Amino acid sequence: MALRNSGHQVMVTASLDDMIPTIAGVGLPAIRTTDPDLGPREIFARDNRLLEIPEDPVAREQQSGHWYGRLEAVTLDALVAFAEDWPPDVIIGGMGSYAAPLLAKRLGVPHVRHGWDIHDPHLVDLGATEELQPELAELGLSEFPEPDMTIDITPPSLRLPDAAPAQMMRWIPGNTQCLLEPWMYKRGADTRIGVTIGTGVARYNQYDFLQAIVENISVPDAEVVVPITEDSLPGLRDRLKNVLAGWIPLDIVAPTCDVLVHQSGGSTMMTALSFGVPQVLIPDPALHRANEMARRIVEAGAGIMLTPEEATSDVLAKSCQEIVSNPKHAAAARSLAREIAALPLPSEVARRIEWLVHTEPARRRD
Questions:
Q1: Can you give the pTM of this predicted structure?
Q2: Which CATH number fits domain 182-341: 3.40.640.10, 3.30.160.340, 3.40.50.2000, 3.40.190.10?
Q3: Which of 241, 242, 273, 293 is deepest in the core (most CB within 10 A)?
Q4: What are φ and ψ of residue 101, in 5° steps?
């Protein structure tokens, strides 16, 4: 959006049709790059290797690179055809957008890699490199070329010691919005605890897990608020009568919370970090990425991490009470929020991408 607001034409390609409403919903044009009837299951079913789900978290993280890589590979023909009709000056891709560097190499234009959250992508990159060897070989490569710019949104003190140089950028929370009611942005008690486990409550039947978390939080006089999708709301209301719940944009409710309890999703983490809200993190032990990110937040003093098995009634209550009563957690969270706020705004980074587009062709000629 920063580039669009700077006067540039921006096109967003969608490898999955599920993303098209989201892209269009934020006011950007969406380009379909796969058969609408071809989903991940159909793509992975073509190769039995991709149907394997390793039990080891590190192996699973690397396997996710194979998954991302194959999903991206099926878009390449459509991307090349689109680029012939609409030649881009620069290609910007997220951490899992492995078609982006391949297309940029083919077209001879700069490639910008954009960080999603604070996770280290090297294991996923290894898997994607293995998966896309034929596509790399077509371009005379054995591995992905280094991006011309990497945009990192990690608070500086949370960056890994061996992290490559990057263009830092302030991450600004944004969610699908709704008509707000006062309870969504105005706390009704001295203590407010937010609980969210993402958007798949109804789809993956996670009512029991969510109910257990909410019922286990027993901080005296605390108000519990649950951001949840509309399709999940009826099932939750049948179980929990006295909880504030509904589709509340997380960027609206997070600043009203003293603590945010969640399963360590990257966007949820970043929203809490941006507003200086300490966190109780309950990552899935099988997800290396979530555990690695949660560990760094805990080491910074801005949260407490529990396994799902540890998140019993007593431990959850004590963890929330510890964060509410011990000011060091809130102080650490606010310090990280100040780091984020001090980073260059997207509008500044947009100007640096403009500079890259203007200077990179000359550098390549030299």
A1: 0.91
A2: 3.40.50.2000
A3: 273
A4: -65, -30
